[in-house]
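Sorry to interrupt, but I need a hand with the structure work. Could you write out one complete protein record for me, on any chain you like? Just paste the record in under my message, thanks.

. . .
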Amino acid sequence: DRGNVHRWGDTPPIGLEVAVTAYTVSAPMAFHRIGRSREETEHIRHATFYRLTLTYQGVGADPAPLDSAYFGLFMDPDLGQFSDDYVGSDPSAEVGYVYNGDDFDEGTGGYGAHPAALGAVMFDGPAEKPLSAFVYWNNGGSVQSNPADAVEAYQYMQALWRDGRPIEFGGSGRDGTNGMPTRYMFPDLPPGYWSEYNPGYGDGISNTPANRRLFISHGPFTLQPGETATVDFALPWAREMTNTLVPQNLASLYRLLLGAVPAVTWLRGLAPDPALATITPEDLPQPLPPLPEPPPEVPERYALAAAAYPNPTTGQATIRYELPEAVPVRLVVYDALGREVVVLVDEAQEAGFHTVAVDASGWASGAYVYHIAAGRLRGSGRLTRVEPPSSRIAN
């Protein structure tokens, strides 16, 4: 970064050399040499992979360590038609993502029906946790818009708004229900709360889609002079054309999160091998067996939309979901350590809308995950338990 003037950030160089390797994995390679299934092969083929090698040289004869450093990936995805997007994150999968705000992407450059979804998955790096923050903003001039300089960009890497205020869980990230700081915007599976489909305290009123920008970061970490570290990430893409059980934009998002992200994550930690880039058809098994055809029936795993409200809750909550057919249903709540808290449903249920009461009054404060399995369908969401105001005052 010592090669020229830093016109945007107006910052002095820090002496960091960045070498980038960008690569893809072909379908024959994924299928025949890595041994993945046809569906995983397609997901891998539709992703691009990146390795950044960071070497800290410093500035001057005796540079100090590079301390409290972050790697940030800024994206202005403009998914199809640029002005009607939503974003979200899944911290457990280390992914931030963008999807269309409704099930038809209008306008020049739009997908039309079955709009796609795109993710950014952090694999690994020198910090303890791959994905340290996910932030979004709209194009504009507010405290929740584009960073104006290097200081504001560094704050975004730490999940702080331009004015230094922490992101808060709920609403727009500045008007959360309990002022609880968070590092991840919209971390729940849409249409659950907190997502763009359900941003305001679990009331089910969606955001207005817009020209979203998103930012994922990795850090903090320290590099000594002469030390080298690597950062790996991938950009998977998915477009679902057949699932009619949910809105088409959500179908592509579920395909991304349930199919593409696990497929590319399987490759995490694999260094780009120059030898693999020279593979020829003669190197593959001869004759090449045909790729198996997908089964004609509905794929085994589709997402089921389940929403909890009010969320956060001080005690009593309700989980609502819809079944397209009569199936056995199991609905379980887990704590942050993955321990089973309560089984809410374990029986066959008819098609239609269902609601389940949740009594969280005896639970410890914090985030819980509910998971529903209904035949081929799977769904999950987050339910946050908070203390009533009177209890917080008394304590």
Summary: DSSP finds five helices and 20 strands in the chain.
